[in-house]
Design goal:
Chain lengths: ~110, ~110
């Protein structure tokens, strides 16, 4: 199974809402990632988790709160978002090795109204 | 962060080879060069990676310049399914963790 699943596929939320994005993989990967992708732009790294610990935070605003409850699951908790946070949020996973391939999920399309 | 530069777009005809260039003049000695592609409405998909030597796999070939300041992704026979945005990426190490630094990508159009 080389699949990374993300739920929901689409999400519309107001600026006062709290919501969560979920990502799951069962490949035994010990590194997991959140990326943000705006239309016609490349993905931008947000967070990296290694062995369930946050190892990279690319200066992401605190209204985005990641969580890695176990080695297969990665969440992104959203609170008080702005309209400019509307984007495709991609999750990825990989082995922890010198060279590796990242497996990406299909993404969650988020719209903030 | 190390950066890559790619043409915004390229066109090819079906069944013909495609050479996608990438410049990475600020690459460091430990940075790997990765290529991913992204089809419409999908997440990026791994294509190939290398450090110094040329690499081949079932999808493509990667030719790396001797000074490592540039590389070329080669699709030997383009098909309509190869139409995608191709990203040239440097895999860098930060604070003991590895991350991918995406270039802006080249949109490849394949004509029938």
């Amino acid at each position: 199974d080389t699949e990374v699943t993300q739920t929901p596929k689409h999400l519309v939320m107001g600026m006062t809402n709290k919501k969560s994005l979920k990502c799951e993989q069962h490949m035994g990967h010990r590194a997991m990632y959140w990326y943000k992708q705006k239309a016609k732009k490349p993905p931008e790294l947000m967070f990296v988790y290694s062995y369930e610990k946050l190892s990279i935070n690319e200066s992401v605003p605190s209204r985005f709160s990641p969580e890695c409850p176990n080695s297969s699951l990665l969440n992104l908790h959203l609170h008080a978002l702005q309209p400019e946070d509307s984007a495709l949020y991609l999750c990825a996973s990989s082995q922890l090795a010198v060279t590796y391939e990242q497996y990406f999920g299909p993404g969650t399309r988020l719209t903030v109204t | 962060d190390a950066k890559t530069t790619q043409p915004n777009s390229m066109e090819s005809n079906e069944e013909e080879p495609v050479h996608l260039p990438c410049n990475h003049s600020t690459i460091s000695g430990t940075d790997y060069i990765h290529w991913y592609r992204q089809l419409p409405s999908q997440g990026p998909e791994y294509v190939i990676h290398g450090l110094t030597s040329n690499v081949n796999n079932r999808m493509a070939s990667l030719a790396i310049a001797e000074d490592r300041k540039s590389s070329t992704l080669i699709l030997h026979r383009a098909t309509l399914r190869d139409a995608a945005v191709y990203y040239c990426i440097l895999r860098v190490v930060q604070g003991g963790s590895e991350k991918l630094v995406f270039g802006k990508g080249t949109k490849l159009t394949v004509n029938p």
